[in-house]
């Protein structure tokens, strides 16, 4: 038994050692990528099912690693958060996204609003609001053309962290706020309030297979009715099939985003997509 225990122990410490090694390497390369601002931004359109109009376009970070190829955000963002690097990465991404949207705006391309993801660590930086306003001004993008996608848990953050006041300040300038991954967090209905929030984004897990999963249909319908009753916009993410679009349309969930509309695209390609659809 003693021997077995020892074996298990060394097995776990080997796993742990490798895990830490992997994280250290990733962290090292991430610092270089931040310094070189080599994180890229992809854009995924959001459209209205009833009018076909473009409601928005979401910026999604991409990291093309020199030797490892594309590393998905789901893999490196948790490491970035643990290493205290997420705020720096977020700024590279937000600045690049706002720069692109500023160009589209000047070119007269219709894109609704640029939506950027913002995590709690980014929002907790004391000068996040100043950074945002400076960037909008420098790139010539009106605040009304920007929306921040924030997960529920961050919005519900204690007033003491200053996040709530910062978000009110940002919103009072005309920037929209939305609850991302809605339905997966600690949905406190007291924060689903049109005085604080402009849009709810229904999480992918409720949208996928909506046409064959009765429970998902009920959840999406309930969220859609809640939003409509309160006068908050609603969007479904992760719609992959025509059947899902049909179900969403019949429920009255007007805005959608997902592979069935368009994949996330690099800047040039996103611009072409917008140009093809601009009136
Ligand atoms: P999210 O905000 O929920 O973004 C939606 C994710 O679903 C994206 O994954 C997108 O590529 C993917 N997606 C879009 N349509 C479909 C579909 O029809 N089917 C499926 N299966 N997936 C779809 P991605 O780009 O890998 O991003 C993962 C997460 O990483 C995001 O989830 C977001 O939480 C985070 N993230 C991405 N970019 C940023 C960023 O710039 N800043 C911050 N703070 N977080 C980011
Ligand atoms: Ca998002
Ligand atoms: Ca999501
Ligand atoms: Ca998310």
TrEMBL record:
Full protein name: Bifunctional diguanylate cyclase/phosphodiesterase
Coiled-coil intervals, chain numbering: none
Domain of life according to the entry: Bacteria
EAL domain ranges (all copies): 23-278
């Amino acid at each position: 038994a003693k021997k077995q225990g020892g074996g298990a122990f060394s097995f776990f410490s080997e796993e742990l050692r490798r895990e830490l090694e992997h994280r250290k390497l990733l962290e090292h390369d991430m610092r270089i990528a931040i310094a070189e601002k080599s994180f890229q931004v992809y854009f995924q359109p959001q459209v209205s099912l009833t009018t076909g109009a473009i409601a928005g376009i979401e910026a999604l970070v991409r990291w093309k690693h020199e030797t490892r190829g594309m590393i998905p955000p789901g893999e490196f963002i948790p490491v970035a958060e643990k290493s205290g690097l997420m705020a720096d990465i977020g700024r590279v991404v937000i600045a690049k996204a706002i720069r692109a949207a500023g160009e589209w705006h000047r070119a007269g391309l219709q894109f609704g609003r640029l939506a950027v993801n913002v995590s709690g660590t980014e929002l907790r930086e004391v000068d996040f609001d100043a950074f945002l306003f400076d960037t909008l001004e420098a790139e010539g993008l009106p605040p009304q053309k920007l929306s921040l996608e924030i997960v529920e848990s961050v919005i519900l953050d204690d007033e003491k962290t200053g996040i709530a006041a910062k978000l009110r300040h940002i919103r009072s300038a005309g920037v929209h706020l939305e609850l991302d991954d809605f339905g997966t967090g600690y949905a406190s209905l007291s924060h689903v309030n049109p005085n604080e929030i402009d849009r709810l984004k229904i999480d992918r897990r409720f949208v996928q297979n909506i046409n064959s999963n009765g429970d998902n249909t009920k959840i999406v319908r309930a969220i859609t009715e809640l939003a409509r009753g309160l006068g908050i916009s609603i969007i479904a993410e992760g719609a992959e099939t025509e059947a899902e679009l049909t179900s969403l349309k019949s429920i009255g969930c007007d805005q959608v985003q997902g592979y069935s509309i368009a994949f996330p695209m690099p800047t040039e390609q996103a611009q072409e997509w917008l140009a093809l659809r601009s009136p």
